[in-house]
Design the sequence.
């Protein structure tokens, strides 16, 4: 294939396995907020202590150590709260462990790139897919020092990985570092302290099937009444029986409210989390539960009614609809979004763009949407792109992981499947084979629109190229028609193509130029005869 890497096979992305909905706790009294803060601080301190113990265990963690930690927490809270804290601690440690592995991979990728470029002569130009040498001796020296620094970091990271040591910050490392940059963050010390304390609270409870309304610690009735089982040291704050505190605020889940009500009325497990948005000064309650695993539809079923190919970019989705044969239908569609600003603004922009994309897919009548299986883990390194800082920021800003998760969950609600394809060469081949043929005076085609066609064709199982190449000249048909385009059962597939116009012989061609007529033959054999040949009666014979 001349350097073209092997492409991964398209696959149908599994559907969502959980649901989360949220509602605001309105009209809380000062006493309600006081109790919520007290419970959050108490259980947050227990969670911090448990996380410290889990990190100290490292590879020595086992079921016995887990049970020991839970027994210690049960005495100062309750069995259910202790179980929720230890489970959350284990998940947080595992997440930090995965992040540590990704960090080691990034360091290894940077070291490989630096070693390759340092091995080349200074000033040597690179090729299309490999960087060349550095431009000067000074840059070569600075990069050699950076290589030594990365190697030292890599050795330290691998040593921590092998020892089972992770670095975790409850409340978030970003918020912790913001403490040293309050002016840039436009925060006062009191505002930062409030966010920091709220981020370290623990106000959550796992669901329990068979218990009343699916949760014994944080209970929500079908009428929206919320009550919390207080830990043992705070039992004196209870205003209901059995050490419970009932909030004056009620909740009414507008989104998936019927599904939530069906679960709690049948006492099926529902997990709850209470958190404070310090920026707005609002309290929220989040309900979540698991869904039974749904069997993924076969790839042939997803391709049955065509496909919509979507090219993900830094500021918009470029989508194109294709029929089952891979032919583009209609014109390109673009769904813009703005990823500047806060995380909430970015998330809202992505949701709005995906909503419009899915609504268009439902109106078009397709069964699936094709997307690229993007992963920029190794593409954002400073060593790979050098001074192209804006490009690195552009790649880092594309929400690949969150985008796929949100698209899968939103598409599943409308009966749409998501087909992930290999992202290699989609923009290059799409522009090469589809951008110019589809561009007209009334339709402008961009490289991203053409990439959407390439993604859709790959998801349908068709090659990106519009036509197959003719046979080579060493065969008997001497580079004839591309009969491979027709199916094996199509009638007349071996015949010649019909003329494009009904141009009379010798008339002008469709392009407006007149073609030369065939020249007359110069041989006697091929010349037409006009003489009548008769036998002479006086011819002597014998």
Sequence:
């Amino acid at each position: 294939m001349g350097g073209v890497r092997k492409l991964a096979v398209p696959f149908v992305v599994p559907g969502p396995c959980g649901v989360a909905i949220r509602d605001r706790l309105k009209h809380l009294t000062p006493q309600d907020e006081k109790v919520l803060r007290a419970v959050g601080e108490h259980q947050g301190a227990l969670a911090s202590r448990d996380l410290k113990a889990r990190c100290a265990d490292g590879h020595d963690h086992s079921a016995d150590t887990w049970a020991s930690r839970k027994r210690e927490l049960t005495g100062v809270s309750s069995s259910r709260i202790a179980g929720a804290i230890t489970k959350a601690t284990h998940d947080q440690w595992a997440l930090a462990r995965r992040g540590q592995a990704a960090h080691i991979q990034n360091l290894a990728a940077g070291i490989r790139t630096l070693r390759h470029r340092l091995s080349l002569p200074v000033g040597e130009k690179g090729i299309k897919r490999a960087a060349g040498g550095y431009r000067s001796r000074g840059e070569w020296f600075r990069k050699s020092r950076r290589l030594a620094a990365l190697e030292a970091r890599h050795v330290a990271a691998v040593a921590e990985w092998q020892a089972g040591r992770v670095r975790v910050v409850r409340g978030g490392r970003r918020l912790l570092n913001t403490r040293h940059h309050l002016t840039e963050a436009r925060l006062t010390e009191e505002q930062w302290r409030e966010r920091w304390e709220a981020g370290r609270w623990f106000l959550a409870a796992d669901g329990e099937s068979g218990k009343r309304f699916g949760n014994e610690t944080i209970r929500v009735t079908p009428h929206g009444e919320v009550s919390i089982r207080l830990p043992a040291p705070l039992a004196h704050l209870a205003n209901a029986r059995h050490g419970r505190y009932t909030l004056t605020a009620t909740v009414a889940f507008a989104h998936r409210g019927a599904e939530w009500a069906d679960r709690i009325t049948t006492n099926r497990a529902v997990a709850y989390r209470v958190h404070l948005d310090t920026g707005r000064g609002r309290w929220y309650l989040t309900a979540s539960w698991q869904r039974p695993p749904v069997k993924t539809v076969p790839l042939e079923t997803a391709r049955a009614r065509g496909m919509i190919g979507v090219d993900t970019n830094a500021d918009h989705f470029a989508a194109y609809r294709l029929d089952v044969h891979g032919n583009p239908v209609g014109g390109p569609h673009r769904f813009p979004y703005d990823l500047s600003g806060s995380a909430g603004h970015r998330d809202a922009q992505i949701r709005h763009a995906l909503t419009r994309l899915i609504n268009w897919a439902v109106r078009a009548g397709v069964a699936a949407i094709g997307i690229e299986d993007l992963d920029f883990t190794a593409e954002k390194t400073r060593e790979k792109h050098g001074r192209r800082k804006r490009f690195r920021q552009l790649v880092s800003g594309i929400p690949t992981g969150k985008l796929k998760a949100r698209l899968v969950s939103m598409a599943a609600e409308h009966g749409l499947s998501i087909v992930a394809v290999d992202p290699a060469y989609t923009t290059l081949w799409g522009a090469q084979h589809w951008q110019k043929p589809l561009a007209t005076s009334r339709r402008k085609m961009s490289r991203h629109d053409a990439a959407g066609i390439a993604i859709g064709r790959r998801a349908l199982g068709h090659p990106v190229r519009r036509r197959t190449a003719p046979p080579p000249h060493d065969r008997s048909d001497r580079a004839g028609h591309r009969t491979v385009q027709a199916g094996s059962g199509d009638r007349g597939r071996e015949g010649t193509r019909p003329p494009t116009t009904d141009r009379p012989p010798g008339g002008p061609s469709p392009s407006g130029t007149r073609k030369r007529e065939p020249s007359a033959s110069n041989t006697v054999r091929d010349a037409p005869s006009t003489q009548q040949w008769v036998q002479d009666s006086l011819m002597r014979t014998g």
Q: What stands out?
A: The two ends are 76 Å apart (CA to CA).
